[in-house]
Design a protein that fits this description.
Elements: E1 2-7, E2 10-12, E3 18-26, E4 28-39, E5 46-51, E6 57-58, E7 67-72, E8 77-82, E9 91-101, E10 106-110, E11 114-118
Parallel strand pairs: 2-11
Antiparallel strand pairs: 1-3, 3-8, 4-5, 4-9, 5-6, 7-8, 9-10, 9-11
């Protein structure tokens, strides 16, 4: 059983900051790519940021320069620092991780989501 548990969402004013965290736990062997996705109301889920287990990162233009993804491999935790937030950043944010189990098989897992609302 593998679990991804997110925390850190909430309500923030435009221009403010939030930091999301996601902890991966369970009977895992290794954690590979970790990422954050978001789903605005009435829209499809989209990539926000991804980080490899070696630390390489990738962002879409919509968040580049404002959001920073990082990870602590010892804690199997990924973070998303969000600065200069805009109302259009309002969405449910989901953590994602590619995990290998002790059996050697590799799977893609999702967290339950955390709401981020940017509004004055």
């Amino acid at each position: 059983q593998v679990q991804l548990v997110e925390s850190g969402g909430g309500l923030v004013q435009p221009g403010g900051s939030l930091r999301l965290s996601c902890v991966v736990s369970g009977s895992i062997s290794s954690v590979y790519d970790m990422g954050w996705y978001r789903q605005p109301p009435g829209e499809q889920r989209e990539l926000v940021a991804v980080i490899s287990n070696s630390g390489s990162t990738n962002y879409p233009d919509s968040v580049k320069g404002r959001f920073t993804i990082s990870r602590d491999n010892a804690k199997n935790t990924v973070y998303l620092q969000m600065n200069s937030l805009k109302p259009e950043d309002t969405a449910v944010y989901y953590c994602n991780a590619v995990v290998s189990l002790r059996s050697g098989r590799r799977f893609n897992y999702w967290g339950q989501g955390t709401q981020v609302t940017v509004s004055s």
